[in-house]
Amino acid sequence: MAHIALDNAAAPAKPDTTSRLAPLGILGLRLTTGALFVTHGLIKYFIFTPAGTAGYFQSLGLPGWVGLLTMTAEFFGGLALIFGLLPRLVSALFVPLLLGAAMAAHIANGFTFSNAGGGWEYPVMWAAVMGMMALLGDGAAALFPTHRLFRR
Which residues have a Cβ under 8 Å from the Cβ of 134 and sit 6 or more positions away? Predict the structure, then answer.
């Protein structure tokens, strides 16, 4: 009968590519999500305009300034992710923003994002991605890693 190793001590030694590649994977997530957030912020600014964005948020029963804050957070938070400026912290701050979007703008449209008005699955998935990024780390090529903020 074949022996199945249940722990690393019994497994043969091999190069640990996971620990070398994980920072690159996080970098890829940072660049992708950062670019998407920048795009969303720019759409709110140039297409919907700040007044239109504020008006839409008011139509949801929220203060108009929340729309302007969201637009600003998407743009500058996206840039922070791209450049690696406190990426774990920025990712964590995106979680409530995205869950708020799901609750305020999408929950009434049902689950599937392809529903009219977009369902809540997409912003909740993005909230999960941001939460996982906050847990995973800053990734490669972060210009100002989060751990620098919390040095003693």
Answer: 88, 89, 91, 92, 95
Going by C-beta distance under 8 Å and a sequence separation of 6 or more, which residues neighbour residue 40?
Answer: 74, 78
Burial class (CB in 10 A: 0-12, 13-18, 19+), 65: exposed
pTM confidence score:
0.86
Neighbours of 128 (CB within 10 A): 13
Contact 143, 30 (CB under 8 A): no
In terms of phi and psi (left: phi > 0; alpha: psi -120 to 50; beta: otherwise), the region of 76 is alpha
Tell me which of 103 and 6 has the higher pLDDT: 103
> How many helices and strands, by DSSP H and E, does the chain display?
5, 0
In angstroms, the CA 80 to CA 1 distance is 54
DSSP assignment of 23-79, as one string? HHHHHHHHHHHHHHHHHHHHIIIIISHHHHHHHHHHHTTS-HHHHHHHHHHHHHHHH
CA–CA separation, 70 and 54 (whole Å): 10
Q: Which pLDDT tens digit goes with each residue over 87-97? A: 999 999 999 99
144 three-class SS:
strand
Higher pLDDT, 14 or 3: 14
Tell me which amino acid residue 1 is: M
